Amino acid sequence: MKKIKRSTITDFLLGIVLMILVLITFLISWGPLETLEYGIYDLNASLRVKKSTAPVAVVVIDKQSIANIGRWPWPRYHIASMVDLLRSYNVKVIGLDIIYSEKDNNQGLYEVRNLIKNIESNPYYVKKGFDVILPLLKESEKRLDNDITLANSIAAGKNVVLPLFFISGKPTGGIAAGLPDYLQKNSISYTGVDDSITAREIVTPIAEFAAVSKGLGHVNVIADRDGTVRSEPLFINFEAKLFPSFALQLTLKYLNFDLTNIQLGKEIKFGRKTIPLYDNNRMLISFTEGIPHYSFFDVINKKIAPDVFKDKIVIITQTAASSGTMQMTPAAANVGSGTIMANVVENILTDDHISRPNWAAVLELIIIVFFGLYIALVVPQIKVWISAVVSLVFLLAWMGTTTYFFAANGYWIKWFYPALILIIGYVFIVSKRYLLTENTKDRIEVDGFETNKMLGLSFQGQGLLDMAFEKFRKCPVEDESVKELLYNLGLDFERKRMFNKAVEVYEHIAQAGAFKDISDRIKKLNVAGQTIVFGRADAKKEATVIMNKPEIKPTLGRYEIIKELGRGAMGTVFLGKDPRINREVAVKTLRYEEIDSDQLAEVKKRFFREAEAAGKLSHPNIVTIFDVGEDYDIAYMAMELLDGSDLTIYCRKENLLPLEEVIRVVSCVASALDYAHANGIVHRDIKPANVMILSNGDVKVADFGIARVMSTSRTQTGVVLGTPSYMSPEQIAGKKVDGRSDLFSLGVVLYELLAGEKPFKGESITTLMYNITSSVPPSIKELSPRIPEKMIPIVEKLLAKDAEDRYQTGKLLADDLLACLNKEA
Amino acid sequence: MDLAAVGKTDRGLVRINNEDEFYLDEKLGLLVVADGMGGHASGEVASKLAVNVIRDYFHGPQKLIGRSNPAYSEATNKLNCAIRLANQAVYEVAQSSPVLKGMGTTIVAVLLTGNKLSIAHIGDSRAYLIRAGNIDQLTEDHTMVNEQVRREIITKEEADKSEMKNVLTKALGISAKMEADLDELTMFGDDMLFLCTDGLSTMVSDEAALKIISQSGDFNAACDALINAANKNGGKDNITVVIGHIKKKKWYAALFKFMEFFRR
Predict the structure, then answer these.
(1) Which of A441, A717, A721 to mutate to test the interface with B (most CBs of B within 10 A)?
(2) Is A594 in Cβ contact with B170 (below 8 Å)?
(3) pTM score, two decimals?
(4) For residue range B20-39, what is the model confidence (pLDDT) as tens digits?
(5) Who contacts A242 (Cβ-Cβ below 8 Å, separation ≥6)?
């Protein structure tokens, strides 16, 4: 039922596109992201580091050994004696991680051999009996021939594994047929496809060593693209043969297995061991700490107890100082290749592997899709902070799951891709929402383009075409949408036969260039305009319809209406003429339509009664009423035409009347009120607008009694009251009023005439009303210092809240005022 | 929450024209009632124009105009903007022509957004909430007497007799700047909204109206019954009633409500 927002759709598409992008990078294992994934891997791996327990030890040719034994390369007999020593310690398998790919180059041996050769080949020496030293020389030769010494050591224990090194690259395409026997023996054939790392060249130990070794394994270490070693290539494919790694060979030999026992497949199996594989027949290494390392020098000098080597795998290796390269691993930096091998051995022997289970990729895919859908469907719908919390929970849960699997089971689940879609998606959707919602929240100006457009359309819908045009005119006509609006408005004008208006609209559009058929329309309408009388002419003047035919003078009763003078609260005031006595009069009309029809008779009655009563009043300061009547359903009142202005203009500070004049005017009003009150008539609406000063200086009070008839007879939703600044407290309370109420109002007028300010003010009608009924006006003395002391109690008495406290008649007031004036004089 | 609404207007027995206007939009959750005033039938123009401008505003892009009040929700501010716009429209039209000069209208509008109700009004047309068998007036009449009663200048009894019962202190369209009174409310299932013009509220007491609404089978009948009651009591003014019903919750409503909490 809820309307789907457009933004929801775009958010959905955004989420889906993001998901597809992440899926693609996931499936192609995009390098840069993989590197980031490795970061997480390393973090998890460091949580997993355990103490080593496997029977493996490393003998290191370290700085100390080199310092004590001599510069590398050492004579090979040092190694031979180490091998012999380890054998005597009952080491189960020795891994000699040093490649002797060339024969020993021993100057002394050459010399001895030359001597032997010389002695044997020269009969002279034999004759001389020099050949007696020949056995000694042969002894020396044997001693000096380190290769033989080492070969013998290797052969003696039948437990030494030697390294191979491959130079990786595209395979040469050759077949292993030409390989020597010892290489054939140390490699396996495969059927089907193999994705092992391939090599193009091989470096082997010299045949003397290789032939007598227990096994051969490659020592290649393959780092990931970020330079960290995380895996061991268990096999390297060289000339269609698979060569096992050094560590694998060591383990096989240790467990009394042979290469022939190995079953290749998704995992590598031999005996009861199963080694999980990652891409390219690699095994992910789970690094451990505390693999025992011993210095070569210490071992050879028997400083290490023989027991620590018993029945173990011992790897003899070099460190940096002796040319062995150092590697970076997730667990530590500067790790020798021997240590890495030892770790591999350790992993295989203890069955502690890091693996990618079969279901890992499926799980990752599911989570990517799940997070993608969450981003696409859920996030756009929910509050920002809630989606933040939910996303964070997802992220942490996912992180926790993967970390748990990694640490506890060694299952490597790629954390990064699903997390990526969650983070990027969230940031995208939320920031987009912020950017865009800010847009929709853009405020528009009160008089802005859109407001005008909106109002214009509303006016047009209401048939207020002129108003609509006024609004559209404020919009930039260059805008296509505005042109369209104007065009439709023009058509509306045509329909109403207001052709000149239509032309005006089209011409307005034409300012911004041609649009649709407007030029044709303008031409056509101009022709029409010459022959058709415009229908619109008087649309605005219905109210003054009486005035529209100047040749026939309209009349109200017996009065000819000449022109409109103005509009008052009750109705329109016209300048009329009594044709009989040729006297100009003011004709005030009463609007009936604001009066409830059931009350009309009553209101009329009251109006006429009040008007007649007022008409009986004859006082120099009261506007004379000549006549009251009714015509065309319009009640009217003909009265004295006055030439002057009312008091409103004298109520402004810069325009105040002199004090004497104020006193004169107010006392005139007071005496008029006194007279009227004495005749039982209360004005009820004394205010500056109802008091006139004529050009000859006369003061006249207008509208006796009538104003109230109007204001209280509106039972329908009536008028909004003009500010009731001049109302007396009892008027506001809706009580019955008498002449003293008029005197209160006159007090307000007096105050205003003196001070240029109203005594009661208020921001709203309510506060104003409250002030009138309850608060004391600001002291007039402070507002206008020129006021004589005597005036102040007069004003205060007039503005008393209780009618009893005021002047009881106008005469008393007039007397006080005049006394004040006399004293002044 | 969903809103179902019905509305009716009647000329009454005395007046010759109907200056009331109302507008319902169940989809938007918008109910508007206006009571026009002014001579020469200009009241009709004012109320109709005001209601139409509000309607057009909500059918348009609903952009906020001018300053908004951070104390209220976006929906309430929008409602306020719509009324501001309506005020501008009525005022400008009134100024444009002597016939229409002085016209104005009351307005009461409610907007349901989710379970939040925004209320805005100017003048003496009222909005009531009927909940659990009680009727509560949600709006304060902008009339002279109501202000006086509130200020304790006069008593309620005096107010009923006052000559100035129909004098408004505020109306839409009579000045360039006019701000509506705003309010917000949380709605529950089965709540009812009842909007009316003074043609009803002066003729039928709150309790009587509540009785009529709760006894009527459906809301159409309730509207008719209310108008009949007002006419029976005199029908001195145009009568307009609008009844909105917040639809009863389904069994899964609690779940929806829970979800609603998360939605933005």
Answers:
(1) A717
(2) no
(3) 0.50
(4) 999 999 888 999 999 998 76
(5) A187, A188, A189, A190, A194, A196, A235, A236, A264, A281
